[in-house]
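Collaboration report, partner site 2.

Our partner group contributed sequences for two proteins of shared interest, and the home lab folded both. The records are reproduced in the order in which they were received, starting with the first partner submission.
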Amino acid sequence: MDALADIDALPSWSLLHRQVEVVDRYPDGRPHHVKATLKLMGITDRETLEYRWGDNWMLWDADRTSRQRGQHAEYKLTPEGDFTRVRFDIIIDPSAPLPEFLVKKARKIVLETAIDRLRSRVTRFYG
């Protein structure tokens, strides 16, 4: 959970995040509201995200932007011996219809960042 809570480090390992600003935090120090600038396939969007946290889960919801009507994403971590299984789900409601080939390409980039690059960061910095 520490790697997910380290929002300030997102631009250093995420393929999508260009800039992040933690607006406020919960009493335990975890981010509550975050402003983020993201770039995906040449399209830049500025989002305001509200994060919520549990012991083994984290989720965020995004306000409406010029590029999307909304977004909801969830991480669920399940300890399994020496490893942790990570489940990531995301729902994005684009503000305009997109061709399926673009959706597939965007999905691949988002999942690579959400799972593979997160795994690399955790392995490198958190053991």
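Second partner submission, folded after the first:
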Amino acid sequence: MELSPVLAGLGQYPFARLDDWRADARRRGIDVIDFGVGDPREPTPAFIREALVDGMGIKPKFAFGPLRTAVSGRRVSPPLFESMEILGKSATLTRLRALRATL
């Protein structure tokens, strides 16, 4: 698979960089919640699809849409779980509580 010129120009793969940042934060004693599952280059893990589609009858696009908007403030954003990692536990939980208050 050929990476886009933008990704190729970054040097280190962005999700490897996230792994490094997460490890560094943990070494510094920061409580990191790892929401990362899989990789955006790969299909959604089967257990997530099964829980949403089979268990709840919801397509992932609709299940994750409100979460994506709550976390990023946009309907189109970087991968949801990685966005949560970058924001950190406190900011992510604050945004998710605000979403819950509107439901």
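Feedback sent to the partner group on the second submission included the following. Residues 15 and 61 are 22 Å apart (CA to CA). The chain has a mean pLDDT of 76.
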